[in-house]
Amino acid sequence: MSNASSLADQEFLQRAIEISRRALEDEGKTPFGSIVVLAGEIVGEGTSSVVELRDPTAHAEVMALRDAGSRKGTHLFTGGTMYASSEPCPMCLVACYWARLDRVVFGATSHDVATYGFEDLQLYRELTYPAPKRALREDAVPGQVREQAVSVLRSWADKLPVPVEPKY
Q: 0.85 cut: is pTM over it?
């Protein structure tokens, strides 16, 4: 990751931090803010709404992506940048990958966030362990049930206009 940031990066990041600061005024909010920028324009904004929406995925970055998707009519933001008041947690970082963003720019690091009681750093660490050593048990069901699940994927892929390229 580069430490280089432009004046525009700093201004957009300031906007994300302003959103995080506003969250302090709302009971039940946590201090996180994010924006999605495409071609120099803010196309999505979000604040952590986990408690308010009773949704563990309603982090600021996810909410900004949802807002951008609603405004732009797409789920892909190639060429875009996510600005976040803090380093995205693993879920949010992966959402940025799924959205095909080109960059993520953030203020506070995962270490800073951990200092104030958030688990992001622990979750990054947890995901480095092999599945059998993780705190969350993961059970893949073999046999006929697996084949049924795979057949749905195969049916979906068979309907696509171009062949699927495996991503191993």
A: yes
